[in-house]
Target: NADPH-dependent FMN reductase
Amino acid sequence: MSTQPHVVAICGSLRDGSHTRTALGHALNEARERGASTDLLDLREFDLPPFDPDHDEAGDATRLRQAVREADSVILGTPMYHGSYSAVLKNALDYCGFDEFEETTVGLLAVAGGSFPTGALDALRTVCRALDAWTLPHQVAIPSAYDQFEDGEFVDDSLEERTLVLGKRVVEYTSIEPNPSSFESEQNAGGD
Model:
């Protein structure tokens, strides 16, 4: 890790007025306040066709993998769709693997139009575990997202605080000492 940690956030929403993107911006602002360099990987700006293992270098896959691999910490942000995370984020993660995520600190953030997006957070936590990432215990769930922002700012102080803590934690834990290699990391080579 460099002396200045580098944090990237991957936005799993394609909407122009994405509340996921807005919340990730707040988390990244806090990470910068804590001394990190940051990048928002807005999946609207990546050409990522549906993942095909026979063509895993398609489109902007190499650019995405490089950006994630160079990060000390990653924040995954998603809207909740049908109880889980977005297809666009799933597709982006399918292009990545152990080289990008193993022993990397990952923070999770999910928004929902309705109730708490815990299904999306649980599903992302499972994916991160499979990739041998170090997922922060602190996560952000933003319910009723349409009512939580006004002019790009949070209207609920407690949700804003949770989001800022996420930005703080991804910087604090960039230098976490990872556990020894797991059985999963040695055996989970993908679905050949």
Summary: Residues 80 and 188 are 27 Å apart (CA to CA). The beta strands are 6-11, 37-42, 73-79, 105-111, 134-142, 149-150, 153-154.
